[in-house]
Every structure is written in C-alpha cells, then in structure tokens.
Amino acid sequence: MAAAAAAAAVGGPQPPQSELPAPGLALDKAATAAHLKAALSRPDNRAGAEELQALLERVLSAERPLAAVADSEEAAAAGGGGPGAAEEEALEWCKCLLAGGGGYEEFCAAVRAYDPAALCGLVWTANFVAYRCRTCGISPCMSLCAECFHQGDHTGHDFNMFRSQAGGACDCGDSNVMRESGFCRRHQIKSSSTIPCVPKDLLMMSEFVLPRFIFCLIQYLREGYNEPAADVPSEKDLNKVLQLLEPQISFLEDLTKMGGAMRSVLTQVLTNQQNYKDLTSGLGENACAKKSHEKYLIALKSSGLTYPEDKLVYGIQEPSAGTSTLAVQGFAGATGTLGQLDSSDEEDQDGSQGLGKRKRVKLSSSTKDQSIMDVLKHKSFLEELLFWTIKYEFPQKMVTFLLNMLPDQEYKVAFTKTFVQHYAFIMKTLKKSHESDTMSNRIVHISVQLFSNEELARQVTEECQLLDIMVTVLLYMMESCLIKSELQDEENSLHVVVNCGEALLKNNTYWPLVSDFINILSHQSVAKRFLEDHGLLVTWMNFVSFFQGMNLNKRELNEHVEFESQTYYAAFAAELEACAQPMWGLLSHCKVRETQEYTRNVVRYCLEALQDWFDAINFVDEPAPNQVTFHLPLHRYYAMFLSKAVKCQELDLDSVLPDQEMLMKLMIHPLQIQASLAEIHSNMWVRNGLQIKGQAMTYVQSHFCNSMIDPDIYLLQVCASRLDPDYFISSVFERFKVVDLLTMASQHQNTVLDAEHERSMLEGALTFLVILLSLRLHLGMSDDEILRAEMVAQLCMNDRTHSSLLDLIPENPNPKSGIIPGSYSFESVLSAVADFKAPVFEPGGSMQQGMYTPKAEVWDQEFDPVMVILRTVYRRDVQSAMDRYTAFLKQSGKFPGNPWPPYKKRTPLHPSYKGLMRLLHCKTLHIVLFTLLYKILMDHQNLSEHVLCMVLYLIELGLENSADEESDEEASVCGPERCHDSWFPGSNLVSNMRHFINYVRVRVPETAPEVKRDSPPSTSSDSVGSLQNSGTAQVFSLVAERRKKFQEIINRSSSEANQVVRPKTSNKWAAPGSAPQLTTAILEIKESILSLLIKLHHKLSGKQNSYYPPWLDDIEILIQPEIPKYSHGDGITAVERILLKAALQSRMNKRIIEEICRKVTPPVPPKKITAAEKKTLDKEERRQKARERQQKLLAEFASRQKSFMETAMDVDSPENDIPMEITTAEPQVSEAVYDCVICGQSGPSSEDRPTGLVVLLQASSVLGQCRDNIEPKTLPVTEEEQIYPWDTCAAVHDVRLSLLQRYFKDSSCLLAVSIGWEGGVYVQTCGHTLHIDCHKSYMESLRNDQVLQGFSVDKGEFTCPLCRQFANSVLPCYPGSNVESNLWQRPSNKNVQDLIKEVEELQGQPGAFPVSIISETNLSKEMESVMKDIKNTTQKKYRDYSKTPGSPDNDFLFMYSVARTNLELELIHRGGNLCSGGASTAGKRSCLNQLFHVLALHMRLYSIDSEFNPWRKLTQLEEVNSQLGNEEQQPEVPILYHDVTSLLLIQILMMPQPLRKDHFTCIVKVLFTLLYTQALAALSVKCNEEDRSAWKHTGALKKNTCDAEKSYKGLLSFVISELSKGKLYHEEGTQECAMVSPVAWSPESMEKYLQDFCLPFLRITSLLQHHLFGEDLPSCQEEEEFSILSSCLGLLPTFYQTDHPFISASCLDWPVPAFDIISQWCSEINSFTERHAEQGKALLIQESRWKLPHLLQLPENYNTIFQYYHRKTCSVCTKVPKDPAVCLVCGTFVCLKGLCCKQQSYCECVLHSQNCGAGTGIFLLINASVIIIIRGHRFCLWGSVYLDAHGEEDRDLRRGKPLYICKERYKVLEQQWISHTFDHINKRWGPHYNGL
Prior knowledge:
Elements: H1 2-10, H2 26-41, H3 46-59, H4 64-70, H5 72-79, H6 82-99, H7 104-112, E1 123-124, E2 129-133, E3 144-145, H8 146-151, E4 159-163, E5 168-169, H9 204-224, H10 235-256, H11 260-271, H12 273-281, H13 287-301, H14 332-338, H15 345-349, H16 351-354, H17 357-366, H18 381-391, H19 396-404, H20 409-421, H21 423-432, H22 436-451, H23 454-464, H24 466-479, E6 482-484, E7 496-498, H25 503-506, H26 511-521, H27 524-532, H28 534-545, E8 553-554, H29 568-587, H30 596-616, E9 627-628, H31 633-647, H32 660-681, H33 690-700, H34 709-722, H35 725-735, H36 755-774, H37 783-797, H38 802-808, H39 824-833, E10 834-837, E11 851-854, H40 856-862, H41 865-871, H42 875-892, H43 923-937, H44 945-960, H45 989-992, E12 997-1005, H46 1009-1012, H47 1021-1027, H48 1038-1052, H49 1056-1059, E13 1078-1087, H50 1089-1101, H51 1116-1119, H52 1131-1145, H53 1147-1160, H54 1171-1209, E14 1234-1235, E15 1242-1243, E16 1251-1260, H55 1289-1303, H56 1306-1312, E17 1320-1331, H57 1332-1344, E18 1358-1359, E19 1366-1367, E20 1369-1372, H58 1380-1384, H59 1392-1404, H60 1418-1433, ...
Antiparallel strand pairs: 1-5, 2-3, 2-4, 6-7, 8-9, 10-11, 12-13, 14-15, 16-17, 16-20, 18-19, 21-22, 21-23, 23-24, 24-25, 25-28, 26-27
Helix pairs in contact: 1-2, 2-3, 2-6, 3-9, 4-5, 4-6, 5-6, 6-7, 6-9, 6-10, 9-10, 9-11, 9-13, 9-18, 10-19, 14-17, 17-28, 21-22, 21-24, 22-26, 24-28, 26-29, 28-30, 29-31, 30-31, 31-34, 32-34, 32-36, 35-48, 36-44, 37-39, 37-41, 43-44, 43-50, 44-52, 50-52, 52-53, 59-66, 60-63, 61-63, ...
C-alpha cells in the first residue's frame, strides 16, 4: 500500500486500475488528490484527466446507493459499513479531491477570500423572521434578513418585521430591487477591482470533479423515481430517496456558501451543455445506468401539457412518447380540435362534456406556440436538476441550493429561463400534488426571486414567451373544473363557468400562478407587451369569462336549503386574485395620455367577450327571476378601464361606449345585484341560509369593494348618463319590485312582493338612487379626496385604531399604485380629519387601544351618510354613525333633537358624466316623488321616515343640479291646461314642483275605500273640464312606458336584432287583470310638490301653519343662501331648506310658496312670531318635559341602586358594629343576620342550617417573590444577565427551615416557623352569603347545565349567583351574636399574671368549644369539608415539610400558616405598611374572621403537649435540671430561634373562640418581650467586637437602675454578656466581616434597627386585632408607625408623653423578671453554639424587612426581547422552541405547547406555573408579544403590554411595527398578580388540558 502511494506521489507508472488500494486512510486520499492535482496542472493534462475520471467512476459509481438499500451485505463488503458508509466515503473523496491534497477546511477558507460579496442573497425558509422597508424598496416584494436590516440605517422609515410565509431571500445589495441607501454596511457596493483575481489552480479540481458529482446525484434521482401507478407518487418512496441524498445535497449547498468564486464554477458546470451531453449519452454498456435512463424517459413522457383528465396527449410528440397510446376517450371538444375523431354518440348525450366545444376550440387555436404544450427536452444539468426538483415536489434542500446560487448573474439568467421552460410542468405537478400548500409556498419562494426583477422579467418575456405560457397555463388549469352555467337560460346556455366547489378553487391551488402573473404585470415593460398583444388579450378575456356568472345563487322559495355551501368565499377570492388583481396591475400602467391605445384594446375585447356572453346565455332584456350572481368580472374590467380612460387618459367617453342596446344589456346584471342586496337585507333570501348574507357582506367589504361594488355602481352611472332617464328610472323600480306600490290609492296589490318586504325594498330602491346620483368616486374626485372621504366614512361609524383604518380603507390593490398604506398621504389625511385618543387604563376595565376619532369640523362639514351606507358591512354601523352624529350635535349645541342625515355638497361632476343628472329631471322620477309625498302625507301604510328622508334628498339633489335657470319662466305660465301628454308639463324639476295636479285615475281593488266615494260633485264647474288634464287619468304604469321605449330602441337598432327570437313577454308583467278584481277610481288631489312639502312641514311640526317663508322677514336670506342653521337638523329643517332652494331657483316658485302659505294661514296679527322663534319656544317646552322625566328616572334608579348596594355589600361583615342602645343591664344579644343570595331569605347562621361566604381559594407564591432590595430585577436580554432566585423570601425561609430540621427535633421545628411563602392558600370573598344547602342544589343545577362554562363544576368551581365572581368554595359563618365583640372588649382590671394563667388554662382544655365536636352537626361537617378544600388547594409539596410524612405537626403547621399567608397578603395589598390605616377596601371584603373560626376549630383537635407548650417558656422560669434528661434525642428549637408571628398565631388559634380582648393583649405583650430580645441578640451579632464590649460595660452600670427592664442599653448589655458565655461571638473569621456593618452604631441607628425588626410583627398583630375585634386601624406618618401601632395594641400605656424621642423599649412589659428569663433563653442558644457556632449565628439574624413583590422589569423596546429570545435554545431540550415564552415572575425561558419538554403529560408552561407560582403563571409569548395567564387548570390571553406608536397591540406580531412598553398596562398586570384578581377581572378563560 505504501509503495503504491509513493509511486503515485512520484508520478511513476500507476498500478493497473484493479489493483488500486481500497480507500483506507485519509492520508492516502490526500496524497492521491495532491498527485492528481499536480498531474492536471501540467500543460498536457490528458493523462491526469483520464486517471481522475477513472477514479471518480469508481468512487461515485451510481450502482451503490439504492442497490445498497436492497441488499446491504454486498454494500457492507464493498464500502465497509452499511449503505450510508459508501456515500460518506464518496463524499470524503470528493472533499479531498476538491481540496487537491490540502485540508478541506483550509480550502474553504481560501475560496471564501475571493468572494466579491456585493449581494447578501441569504436564503430562508418559511417562518423565518425578516424585514421589509417600504421606504427603501423598489419592488413591493423586497425583504431583508435581520442582520442586514439592523446593520443598515432605517430610522424613520416605514418598515415592518414579518414572518415569512413561503420563504425568501435577502435583497441587500441588489439595486434592482431596493434603493442603495438602504444597503447595510457589508453590502454597500464594493468595486470589483478590490477583489483579487482567483488563482487558476485553486478551483481547478472542482471543475473536473463537480460534473461527475452532479451527474451522480442526477442518476440517484432518476433511479429513485418510480412513475406511480395512480399518477400520484407515494410520498414515502420519494422521501426515502431524499433522505438518502441529504448529505450530497447539503454538500452542494455548502459549496454555494463559499462565495462568488465557487458559485461561478458551479454555474459553468450546471449550464455547460457539452458536459451534460458527454456524461448522459456516454452510458455505454453500464446496465444500471441504462435502467436509470429508461426511467428518466418514462418520467419525461408525462411532462407535456395534456388536456384535462390527461386522457389525450397532444399529437405532436416524438414517437418515444408513444403516440399510439392516444386515448380515444378524450373530451369531445378536445378531440374535435385535433381532428382525429368525430365525437361519438354517447358522449353527446352527456351535456356536460359536449358543452366545452366552443371554448376549447378557441383555446387551442389561439395558442400561438405549440411548444408550450410540448414534452420537455433537457440540454444541461441545471434543466434536469430542476426537472427532478419538480418531480420530487420541491424538496426544501434542493430549493435552497438552487436559490443560493442566484447571486451569480449568469446563473440567474440561465435558471430563470429554465424555470420558465418548465413552468407548465410545474403547474401540472402542483395541480396533482397532495401537499399543494407546501408546494405552492416553495414555488413562490423561487418565482418571487426571479420575477421581481424587471430586467429579468422583460428578458424572459421577450425570449421565452413568458406571458403566453402563463396565460395558457392558467387557462389549462381552470379548464379542468368547468361546469355549465345555469344563469338565465338553463336549458340552452352555452356558457361555462368554473365550479367553485372544486379543490382547485376551494384550496386556492391556483395561487402561485396568479401571484407570479400579478408580479410580472407590475413591470411596465411586461405589461405593455401584454396590452399590445391582441391575441393575448383575447385569450385573457376568455379566461376572465370563465368567472363571469360563477357561484350562481337561486332564491329558495319553499323550504330552507338543507346544506349551506360555503363555496362563496372561494368564488370571491378567485375573482379578486385571478381577475381583479391582474386588472389593477394593468391599470397602473394606463396612467398617461400616451397609453390610450391600450385602453381601446382592452375595452374592445372586453365588449366582444361580453357580447359573446350575452349570446351564450341567450339574454334578451329580462333577467331570470330569483337568481343572482355577484361575479361579473367582465363588466368590471370594462368599467374600470372606462374610468381610467376618462380620468387619466383624456379619452372621449363616447368613443369607447357601445350602442344603446348593449348599454341596456350591460346595466341589467349590476342592477340585479343592487336589487338583490336590498332583497337579502329585507330577509327575502332567508331560506338560503346565512351564506347569502355572507356574500352580500363580502361584496361591500373593504378588501373587495373597489373591485366589486364600486365598478358596478360606476357602470350603472355610465349607463344612466347615456340611456333614456325615464327608461332607467322605471327599470330601477321594476327591478326592486315596488312598481305596484307607487300608486296614489291607499290600497294596492303587489304581484311580485309580499307586503312585509315592501317597505324595505322601497327604501332600498330610493337609497340606491341616492347613492347612484351622489357618489362621485369615479366621476371626478381626485385620489386624495377619495382617500379623505373613505377615511371620514370609516371614522364616523366608530373610532378606529390605526391598523384597522389601514385595513378598512380600500386602497388600490396593486402594490405599485402609489397609495401605499402608511404612505405620506395616508398619514397627512389622517391627521387632518381625526384626533388621536391615547389608550386609557382603568384597572379592572378592559384594555383600551389608541384610537382615532373624527374632529368636530369633520362632523360639522364632512359627515356623508351616503358614503357610510355604501361602505357598511353591517347595517348597525349606519345606526352607529347616526348616533355618534346626534351626540356631536347635542354636545356642540347645534341641534338638540333627533337629526336627519345631513345633506352634503358634492364635488363637481366630470363633464363626461353630465348626463347622469338627467335622471333627476325626468317625469317618471317626479311622478314617483309626488306620489310618495302624497302617500306619506295621507299616512298610507309601509312608508317610513327613511323613505321620506330619501325622497327629500332626491328633491334636493334635483334642485342643486337643475339644468338651466328658467329664463322665460313667465312665458310658460300658460299653465296646466295646455299639457295633455301626462302628469307634468316639462322635465325640469324646478318648474314641475309648482305644477298642480288635480285628478288622478287609479286602479284599486274593489274593496278599497276610494271606490265607495261618489264621483266628484259636479257643482264645481271646473271639475269636469279639469278631468282632461288629470294626467290623462292614466294608470300610472312605469312598466308600460319602459316597454315602449325598449321596443323603440330595438326597432331602431340593426336588422340583425330582428333575427333574435324574442321571448314572449313573461306573463308576470301582463295586464294586471291576473290579480284580484281591480277597478278604476278617480282621486281628487289638487296638490303640487310645493304644497305637499308645506303641508308636510305642518305635519312634522305637529302645528297648523308652522311654515312661514323666511324671506318675508329677512330678504338677505335669498342673497346669501348658505345658512348654517339649515345644515343640521331633522325633517322640518330639511323641508325648510328645500323650500328655500326652490324659491331661490325661480321667482314663480317663490310667489307660489307665499300664496300657499297665505291660503293656509289665517291673517296674522301684526306681532309676528317667526318660525325660528316658534321653534325655540317649542324646543324649550320639550326640553323642560324631558328634564322632568329624566329626573324622575334618575331618582328611581338611585334608590334601586342603593338598596342593591346595601344588600350586596354589607353582608360580609357580621362583626359590623350595629349601634345598640344597651338599656338594661342585660344586653340583648342580637345575632348576625345573613342574606342568602339564592333563596333570598335572611336569617342567622345556625348549627343545622349554616350560612357560608362565597370564597375563592387559590394557592399563591406571591409572598415568596418578595426580595430584600427595592430595585425590581430586570428580564435578562443577553447571555450575561441571569436571575438567581436565592434572595427571594421563599428561598430564605426554605433554607432556614432545613437548617433547623438538621439540628433540632422535627416536631419542634414545625412550630418554630411558618410555611406558605410558596403555595400558601389565599382566601378571598366577594362578600355574598348563601345557605350551604342552597349552594349544594345550585351546584347540582350547574352540573346538569350543559352550557359551556369557563369553569369546571366537578372541581367545585362556580360563579357567585349575585355578582358572577368566580369562586370555588363556601366558608361557613360561625353562629354567633353580633354583640360579642362589645362584651369581650370591656377592659378587665385583672393583672398580667392572672391573665397569663387564664390563657394557659384555656389552652389546656381540649374541647372547650361551644360547638361540641362529638355531636356531628351540619356546621362541623361543613367546616371539615372546607378545611379539606383548603388543603387540596395547594400541592402536597407545599404542605408536607415534616421528616415523618403525615405527622399531625404538619397539619398544625399548615393551618396556622394559612392564617399567616392571608394576613401577610393583606398587608402587601395595603402597600406593605399600615400607614393609611382605616378599614381599607381589602378589609371590607375580608373573610379572615370566618377563616379563623374554621382554623381554630381544627387546631384545637391537636392539643399541644403541655410540656412543650412555648407559652410556658415565655412566661415561667424553669428549674435547671429539666435540660439534662433529653441529651440523647435532638434538642428542641431554642425559643429565640422561633418566629414570633407564628407563635402569636399558634397561641391565638389554641384559645377557645371567641377570644377575649384582654387575653389577646396579654399574649401580644408576652410575645413582644421575646421579639425584643431577638432584636437585641441579632443586633449584638451584627456589630463588631469593640462595640460589643463598649455596650456591655455602659449597660452593665444601668442594670440595677429602676427602669433597666425598659431601656435597651441595659438589656443589650445583658444579652451580650449572656451570649458571650457560649461560642456565638467566637470565630470572628474573615467570612464574618460581610455581616458586620462597617458603620459605627449610634443610639439613633440602633433604635431604628430595633424598631424595624419589630415592625412586621406589630403590623400583622394590628391587622389581626382589626379583624377579630373590628377595631379601626389608625392612620399615621411612616416615622410614627411603630408608636401608633404599639399604643393601639395596648403595649404602650395610654398616658405616655410623646415630647421626648420615642424609645421602643418603653413598650416592654415583662411577665417575669427580665434578666432571669433572658438568661434562660440565652442559655439554650449557648448550648447549641457549643457545637455549631456558625449556624447559631445565621439563625439569629432573621431578615424580616421584605420589600413588596414585583414582576421583572421589561426593556423599553420589544425588539430587544424578541431578537434575544426568538432564536434562543431551550435549556431542557436544546432546540429552538416553536413557541418560546418567558415567565415574567422569575425570567425562566420555556417552550409553550412544546412536546419536547413534556413531563408526565404536563407541558412545560403548566409545569412551570405550578413550580413557580403554585398554579399561577404569567408568561410573555415571544412570537406574539401577548401575555398569557395560567391559573390552575384554566388559562386566558391577557393582552399585550407592548404597544406601537399608535397605541395599539400587535398580537402575533402580524404588522411587525416597532413596539414600546406601556408602563400603565404593566402596572395593571402586576396589580392583578399581587391582588390575585386575574380570575375576577379577565373574562375569557378556557381549559388548557395541561397542553401549554
């Protein structure tokens, strides 16, 4: 072996191939590689090349990998070590050869040095967090990786962070896609000169090795692919192959990361056609290679674009593809195209297949280039690699490899062309794929990189026919799911539409294709080619017509539809994405005059397609009844291009409009949609289910409206402006089915509409007319005006957040259109029309967001009800806008009553649309208005205020837009006599208003009241004469009129129209004779519109003669018509405004108004009260009444509230002192009375029917989170920062307990401390009470109630029946009298000694309890069960601290600790001290008193052995010998190590309840002496040796003075001298120095230390006294807290003077001589420190000054948290979690929902919430910026404490704007945590099933 290697090195003759040594040592490979490299470097390198080829042939032989899977024994023999080993070996060889003998790592580094890194090009996959900056982007798809973004300067830019959906690549450095100013520091353009040239020999080996390597990879891919049977590759097989190839593809991917030099080599290899040819054709005799080549050919066969159902392949394939197999069962249509067969009979009978003929023929003939449909041919590695990438459905690794190469320009072009070449194949594969979602994402991942670059897109459009391919493929895709259209003529329709139920549409599978198409159309050069290419436009219109009329709805008339199909959303999405968005893309390039030609092309082909469509559905003039489709993309294309032509291109509108007949047809379907909207809102479609409402809403919804309803309305406006107005108006009323309603008669028959729908349909018709006539969106408004109008409409409906406004305002969907959300104009318009309301925070209130609200002047001048109606999705929003408008008017004092929608002036019309205003001046409309006014005045049924409002609006519109001033109005006076044709003389509204109509002939049912009347009395001579001009007494038939007009037009139009077989007029409109018998009656009317208006004014104001022409008093009014007093108001104001306008427009009208008023009004006395004054008087009167009403209501309400408050709030304090007159010596004992909130009875709580308080028990670790420093900890955001828990209160207490348990007797340890710092049980109540038996039945009913509750009844949870507060237990109220407190509080005159004895005796009697435990009463049972509840509230580990499990001492400890926890927590709620005093809110709702009874009852079951009762040690001196007996067992805890507060609770709970006040005070006094001694001992340990000896001496002198027992100096010196006897002060080593404070102690500082040491005890004691005896807490300054509390507790004699400084020692009251008892206490410690001096010292110093608990402090900017945590690995599973979260209490990083960190079926967050917060966890979800609360088995989303610049949350970081901490919110969160009110304040809870 060595010889061979040596020979190779010298370059001597190689041994024959077969003898080459088996690849063994790396050294050997390196040597071979070095030799080959040398050989290849020689000028004549043929020999070296051959040698290398031979070696590669052997190493990379493709026979291995898949064969190896089959039989691994051989493989193991060959490659050594199973299938994987061979590949690894091959890779090792490749790496060695590439490096040419050197180390591979060094080689990589060397290549990287030559990387001209001008582009970043980092490729990422889905879910990667990237950035997009709109300020820097040229293409809307531009994106940056986080690193490049943070390295660049984007301050003040409009950027956002986003989570990639499909994957992408970083564009930094690419000036085609983004502006250079945004490049980061690394990619600011480097000039190529600085990069040294790559040395030839560095990459020489790569050029030889890589082609073989890639070919080997391709062979693997060929071999692994089996053409699947059912045309669907089984995913398992594919994935198996891919897994095997993982290392190879990864190797290639690593090569691409070496930088530019290596990429250019790879590009050469991948695109070199010669290489490919040599390797693939030179297969020679290798059987395996042959087999794989055959597989390749089979796979290729199916790559052509075949026809739907893939049964029939295009006939132009090479024989290899097997033309013989052409299936005969193809689509009839397709077969016809190819002229191979005539369609066979049976197929024709199946309509659905024959129907496609026409379209399909078109398709194939218009496809210019057959090659699109053709089978693929490959010429390079790149092409075949892409082919296999597609076949294997885009494996992520391959995609990444192909994209990593893109920074190489040459590769980019080659790859783009290859991609386009395979485009049809890609889409075909996608259509069949099971995983179409993943695949779509990966396709778009690639295509967006290629097509966003305009230069590249243009190149492939020109060279590879990209547009043709895309349009053809789109057609091909949609053809597979066509069905026959049922619109109009079901039987004979030739039209086909897509079926929205198909997966292709339902799952949005077409999305990648459409997205690419929209992307390339955004490039001007590409769009121009599209618009110039007539063939493409024809094909495209064909494509669009597939969507025309899809998803047809038929109205259900009989029963409710069984199955509500939800396909409608697919239909809307398809129209928006496949039709509208490409349309907006094209429109964005038609902005200037030069582009007129494009518009003409589109309009021309659009009209052709529409004409085809009308023919295909057999449409003449009547739409089929009860059908509607919301999808008319062809109409909308036409409309939008018309609009653009007039607005931007200065085209003459008439030059692009069709003839009248076509216009009539065009208007029918959009009008049908408008009528159907009204029908849907009138509940006429209710049997079609909810989905039809959904369609009506989606149609007007903000993302769709400008592609749907806006073009429809615009098209109708265009039609209306060009068609005969009478025809148009009558069509509208006919479509809305309200023609029959428009009669003067009081009764009528409507043949097509039920009575209950008439009113809303009439409202609908009038509203539609108002919108049609007043909307100016496409008729002359500029973009900024439109934006402003949209914004005002949205803000008037509701205050909006910034993001919802952006979302609600329909911007042009094409991203390049200029109105980019967040762009300059948006912000400037917003600040002009709205004020920002900063978010408000009420604790307990809902979390507000920052909102924008309209400015006052916007309400005043710009509120436009028409725009609001057009844009509301929910009808309630219109009401909401009106309510807000009303509120504004009230507030600003403009109008007090209920206003009507204001009339708003419109922007002037564009001249092209002037014809629209003819609608207002046509007789038909005037007849309708007259009739409606008359009906309203006569109070006919079915007319609402809304109708009147719209009628007046239309009249006003007509007056505003009256054509020409009547110049010769006086001449036209010849009056009514002359006009015989119909109702009105002319068509001008101004003159028609004054025209009197005398008689009208109407058809009425025989039952109508009109029939009974006699004919008009002939006495009136003129009546007969005027019959002639009673509107020729015609039947008011709009329809007849319309028919006539239509017939005229038809006759005029070309002769071909006559060939169309006209359907017989549907009998629906036949003579009304079909209805019940009608008869003709003649009505006397004698009114004009003006007179009707004036009468209406009287009717509305409720007074006769209320209208008085204002100009008679003030002639000025006629000169300056804009009078503010008329701009807001109700109907009266509107009528006045209209009459004024009418008078202004013509003198005749003015005269007639005055006449009418004179006729009606009797002559007035000289003193005139003007209408305005009258109105104000009126108003006053009304206001007064309203005020009185309001007062009455308020009073009633207040009294109700008061009684509720009393019942609700005062129940909970049974110890409330009810003022009682104690008249007799024997006080009457009144028992506390409780109200049961379930049965409502009041009564005392008794043994057999106890009452209980509704309580919530929860475990809490809040106390354990107190630390001893004031500064709260901050959340770590770097690796260095960490939080250590050992300075928390919980940790300190734990350490202390375990230390005691190490050295002392267990049972005694458990009495020396309290637990519950972690997992303590906190009890809170809402204060309501109920009978316990009522509660049980309540729980039973909850259990049977199947409603989904947010709580679990099985766990005993419920909500308080009265206030709905969450609760989980009931705390029994102890039966007792209210007066007990007074009795027991009387001061007794017994001395201390007697009291001490009494206390001891009382503790000794076990069952001295009024309730005898032996007899089981209901009360005692309940007390037991609640005790069980309390125990089960917390986990076992928080209850069991004893060494012997289950010992009674444990329960004992747990019980008094519950009391301790509740007292400590109340103290924290009061801010940590009692300075504020008073019965604070916390006290009002407290249930401590009841809790104490329950605890005491249970504690007395455990009698403490009197031997060990600490009370003795505190109050008696012991004999010396008792210590000797118990040497052998562990000693008891010395009394000075006891926790005094715990002792207090033990003593009190051991006493029989209720406790007497003097006993309580006695216990407190005794314990205070112990506490004080502990303080002195701790102080003595804290100071240093000199101080100690000094004090020892000064104090020793005082020892014998009289008040030595009350002076700390004497006591301190005694303590020091006593403790010096032991070893406590010895071993003053170095480590002690930490504890010794360096400051010299002054008397003041010592006094302060002692007070601070004792304060916590005094606070808890005072609270306890407050609860047990109902005494108020005094309030005080912080510095005097000690003295006030001690006097309140009775420690200080009341006559104590406060003039000299207060000394804590004066509170001492020693029960036995101080020095004796102290020496006894100290001796216990000395005997302990004999052995353990260290621990003895540590135990003496108790840190009792805890600060309030806080959550962690958070950084100002959210990005700081996000960037650190979202990539951080979890410490448990070392993976990056999918949903990372961090605990805000302790900073632990956890995986939310992560299965990786699951333990015993608990996920990590739930587990952590139990360990850290005893069941309460507060987590910040990193990826969502939201806080989640876990409470026990429930969780809720709390909201976010990070808000953006507009004061709103960004849940899930969807918008990705920068977020900043909101301190107020965080405070609220912390407050809820500390006060344990999460359950009460947050409403939306759900179970988490341990899965978080």
